[in-house]
Amino acid sequence: MEKNIRTITAQELRQGRQALVEELKQRGINAREITLAQLLLEEMFFRLQKGMEAGADFSIRIMLRRMWGDTELRLMAKGAEYNPIPAVTETPTEEAEEDAYQLAILKTNRQKMSYVRKNGLNIVTIKVHELDSTKRQLIYTLSGLVLGCICGLFMQAFLGADVIKAINDSLIAPVRNVFLNALHMMMAPVTFFAIIAGITNISDAALIGKLGGRMVVVSLFMQVITALLGLGLGLLLFAGDLSYMQAGIAPAAGNAAAVQYGSLKDMVFDIVPRDLVEPFKGDKILQVMFLAIFFGLILNKMGDKAKGAVECIDFVFRFAIVTLKVIVKAIPLVVFLSMASLLASTGIESLLTFSGLFGGLFIGVAVVWLVGAMTILLFGRITPFSMTRKIMGLSPLIFTVSSSHARLPFVLKFCAENLGIDAKLAAFSIPVGVQLNKAGNCIFFSLVTLMLMRVYAIDMSTSLFLTLWVSVCIMAIAKPPIPCGGIICIAYLFTVVGVPAEAISVILCVEPIAAMFNGVCNESANIATTFILARENNMLDEKKYFA
């Protein structure tokens, strides 16, 4: 959406800046970005005027453009062709000190600007505000989801089954497989270096002390119970036959994977690999995690002697993350193709199954609140009703803020002012608890695994249930804080129960929305754990809590 602000001359530059400020304020742009936009507008105006050798009547037209959450300022000047964006090697003239100042400002913000010559106009575009990359990816993925649904229903209505199958086999399946292969290629190395980098960056494990040990106990208790209830919820929600969805994912014939572990004992004794290479070649993510933890602890024990190795690991980890970020940029396209294929092959009935999954995630939030209340009653020996009521009020804010780092100030303020938790305790417990309290992951992992088990008609034996229960708990805690970290964990769970790897493409469609529910569950569990610590250590203001 574009909006023409005004055309300005040198005499009207001040009024133009003021009009720009008012318009940007209406769009919710922060003060720092507004100040920079004014500065770049002024400097670019004079640079265009000088470079185009224009007279006193020189003018530019100012327009604002907003798309996908980004806000851009466009400056359009008619006249001789001139690119005002300075080259990196450009140097100021010695006789003009103002030129040096102007050049320094423009060079510093060079990446925010672009130039194009069109219809006799010199057009300069300045990026005033850029949407957070996580939110941008979410918007693109949701757009791919919606467009894929529309395209799939259109294909089902107007194309024959043979044509749909040909499109799936010749276009959708190859593109999807290329993406899944690229993602699978990075699973083991990214997981390994994410965990080992996290362990080697712990400067003082003794700092956690007694409070940290208690936090681990409470967090694990909540996650074990939540995972059990999540599996039970999944068995109730997906009790029917969902095999019709195979047509839009991957037919079972020739694709079904063998159940990786026959029992819980097999899984436990398979954690230690026979060699160092095999875990990185297959789907042995649990073995990769074991190696990362083991080597990370060894490096920590070596102290300064391992400094060079730690720096090398940090570099490789950053390299792997950048590589993975490039790969996941294709997720919106894969989501579009996957949903188009699914709905073209199965119809709107698939959407009902997904609505059941989202309903399960919604119920899962209530399950986490229930587990949190039960844990507070058991460990804290205090009524949990006030706690649950106040967390419900905070949940809409948590739901809309995707990043745990962005939520941190709100959560800390909530703990201190609404629950009466000591501010120093909250400042310690909440950031540490972000890595421990993964109740939302337990719910999500349980539901999607059981849903796909029903799609491929995989029976749930007692031994498989126990293995899956333990695996969900481990993956929920061990989920690496990286793009597609949850997808990596789900891919491992699929190998545990025998679901084909191609089914991951369907989970990509729902993962961004599920992340919002996961955020509410994880923060609720984190707050409950912090509350219990405050209660046990006499660091709770009960007047504020019951207020």
Task: Describe this protein's structure.
By secondary structure, the chain is an alpha+beta fold. It folds into two domains: about 130 residues, 2-Layer Sandwich (Heat Shock Protein 90), CATH 3.30.565.10; about 400 residues, Proton glutamate symport protein (Orthogonal Bundle), CATH 1.10.3860. It is built from 20 helices and five strands. The protein has a five-stranded antiparallel sheet, covered by helices on one side. The longest helix has about 40 residues. It starts with a strand and ends with a helix. About 0% of the residues have low confidence. Its main location: membrane. One of its GO terms (cellular component) is plasma membrane. It is a multi-pass membrane protein. InterPro entries: Na-dicarboxylate_symporter, Na:dicarbo_symporter_sf.
